[in-house]
Design brief:
CATH topology of one domain: Glutamine Phosphoribosylpyrophosphate, subunit 1, domain 1
Number of strands: 16
Distance between the termini: 38 Å
Structural class: alpha+beta
Strand order of the largest sheet: 5-4-3-7-6-2-12-13
CATH class of one domain: Alpha Beta
Radius of gyration: 22 Å
CATH superfamily of one domain: (Glycosyl)asparaginase
Shape: globular
Order of helices and strands: EHEHHEEHEHHHEEEEHHHEEEEHEEE
Bound molecules: aspartic acid
Length: 403
C-alpha cells in the first residue's frame, strides 16, 4: 500500500493517521492521473565479451539504449501511441552501429546484409513485416508501412524494396551497412567453418555477439494499447535468403491487448519452432500465467529445443519481463507508476543494462531505493520480490556475479 502525503495534498500532522492509498485512488481524486505507460527495449541477446567491454564501450552501449528509451518514452509521455513509441525506439537502435539491425547489421555468407523487421498492433491485431531487405535504411519503418498501407502482412526482397521506393522510404547503398566488427565476425566464422571441414581442430572463440543480435521494443500506451517491434540483421554467415524469427508474427514479435506485447532475440530458427512470442501470450490467456512466468516458460521451451536467446514482454498492466539464457542481453525499460500523482508527475524508473545478469539485482535494489524516497512502502517484502511502489520486481533466485 502506498502513500505520499505531500504529493496528494494531504499534509500529515503529527499524530494524524496516514490515509491509505485506497482512499486516494483516482475514482475519488479526479486530479490523479492513473494511466500506466511503459516501454522496454532490447539490443540483442548475447553481449560483448566481458573482457572486451571497456568503460568507453559500455558508455556507448548504454547511451544507445538510453537514446532509444528516451525516443520511445517521449512519445508515450506526450500521450502518443505504443506503435509510434516502439517504432521510434527501434529506429534509434537501427541507426546505432553497435546493434545488429539497420546500420550495424551482420553479414551473410555471401558478404551481403539482409535485414528483417516487424511491428504489431495489439489493439487491432494488425501487423507488418519485411524480410531479406538489402537497401532499406530503417526496415522498421518499412514494416510499419506494410501494415498501414498494404493489404499484406509480410513483403520480402525486391518486392519489399519496390514498395519502399514507391512510398518514399529511404534506400541506401549496401556500403552504409559496413562495420569492421561485423565483417571481422564473418571472417572468424568462415575460418572456423573451414577449419571444421578440414578437421584441423584450431579453436575459435565465437561469441553470441559474433553470431547474432537484434533490437526490439514493447510498449503500453495511455489508452491501454500494446505494441511490439523488432528489427535485425539476422545471424552472421547465414545463407542468403534465410529469414529468421524477427519478421515472423507470433515467433519473434507479437502483441495482443488482451495479454501482452513481446519482442524476441536469439537463435531465430528455435524461436520460430517454439512460436515463442505468441506462446507468451497464449500462456497468459489460456493458463492464466503472469507475464514473468509466461515469458520464462516460453524461453524455456526455446532452450529445450536447443536455442538460446531472450525476450522482452510487457503486459496490459505495465508489468515487464526481460528473461534471457545467454551471457547477457542489452536491455532497458522505463515505466510510470499507476498512482503517480500529478505534482510528483512522472515517477520515472528508467534503467538500461548493457550487460550481465548481475545488473538485475542492483537495478532492482536501486529502483526500490528510488521509490522509497518518493513513497512510504507499507507492505511486507515477499521473499522473491521487492515492492517498488505498486510494482514488484522479481529478483533472480541467486545473485550472480559479473565475470
Ligand atoms: N533472432 C534473430 C534471427 O535469428 C537473431 C538474434 O536475435 O540474435 O535472425
Amino acid at each position: 500500500m502506498l502513500f505520499n502525503a505531500a504529493a496528494s495534498g494531504l499534509a500529515q500532522k503529527p499524530g494524524q493517521s496516514v490515509k491509505p492509498a485506497s482512499e486516494i485512488r483516482p475514482d475519488n481524486n479526479p486530479n490523479m492521473e492513473t494511466k500506466k505507460i511503459g516501454l522496454a527495449i532490447h539490443g540483442g541477446a548475447g553481449t560483448i565479451e566481458r573482457s572486451k567491454m571497456t568503460p568507453e564501450k559500455e558508455r556507448e552501449y548504454r547511451a544507445g539504449l538510453e537514446r532509444a528509451l528516451t525516443a520511445g518514452y517521449e512519445i508515450l509521455k506526450r500521450g502518443g501511441s505504443s506503435l509510434d513509441a516502439t517504432e521510434a525506439a527501434v529506429r534509434v537502435l537501427e541507426d546505432d552501429p553497435h546493434f545488429n539491425a539497420g546500420r550495424g547489421s551482420v553479414f551473410t555468407s555471401a558478404g551481403t546484409n539482409e535485414m528483417d523487421a516487424s511491428i504489431m498492433d495489439g489493439k487491432a491485431l494488425k501487423a507488418g513485416a519485411v524480410g531479406s531487405v538489402q537497401h532499406i535504411k530503417n526496415p522498421i519503418n518499412l514494416a510499419r508501412l506494410v501494415m498501414d498501407k498494404s493489404p499484406h502482412v509480410m513483403l520480402d526482397c525486391a518486392g519489399a524494396e519496390a514498395f519502399a521506393k514507391a512510398n518514399g522510404i529511404e534506400l541506401v547503398d549496401q556500403k552504409y551497412f559496413f562495420t569492421q566488427e561485423r565483417w571481422d565476425a564473418l571472417q572468424k566464422m568462415k575460418a572456423a567453418e573451414k577449419d571444421r571441414a578440414s578437421g584441423a581442430g584450431t579453436s575459435f572463440l565465437i561469441t553470441d555477439q559474433d553470431r547474432h543480435g537484434t533490437v526490439g521494443a514493447v510498449a503500453l500506451d495511455k489508452d491501454g494499447n500494446l505494441a511490439a517491434a523488432t528489427s535485425t540483421g539476422g545471424t552472421t554467415n547465414k545463407m542468403p535468403g534465410r529469414i529468421g524469427d524477427t519478421p515472423v508474427i507470433g515467433a519473434g514479435t507479437y502483441a495482443n491487448n488482451q495479454t501482452c506485447a513481446v519482442s524476441c532475440t536469439g537463435d531465430g530458427e528455435y524461436f520460430i519452432r517454439a512460436v515463442a512470442a505468441h506462446e507468451v501470450s497464449a500462456l497468459m490467456q489460456y493458463r492464466g500465467l503472469k507475464v514473468q512466468e509466461a515469458a520464462q516458460d516460453a524461453l524455456d521451451t526455446v532452450k529445450q529445443l536447443g536455442g538460446t536467446g531472450g525476450l522482452i514482454a510487457i503486459d496490459k498492466n505495465g508489468e515487464i519481463a526481460l528473461p534471457f539464457n545467454t551471457n547477457g542481453m542489452y536491455r532497458g525499460w522505463v515505466s510510470r507508476l499507476p498512482l503517480a500523482p500529478p505534482d510528483t508527475n512522472w515517477i520515472l524508473n528508467k534503467k538500461t543494462f548493457p550487460d550481465a545478469p548481475a545488473f538485475d539485482t542492483n537495478a532492482a535494489t536501486q529502483c526500490c531505493q528510488h521509490f522509497r524516497s518518493s513513497f512510504r512502502v507499507l507492505t511486507k517484502k515477499p521473499a522473491s520480490a521487492r515492492r517498488c511502489g505498486s510494482r514488484s520486481i522479481i529478483l533472480p533466485p541467486t545473485r550472480r556475479k559479473a565475470n
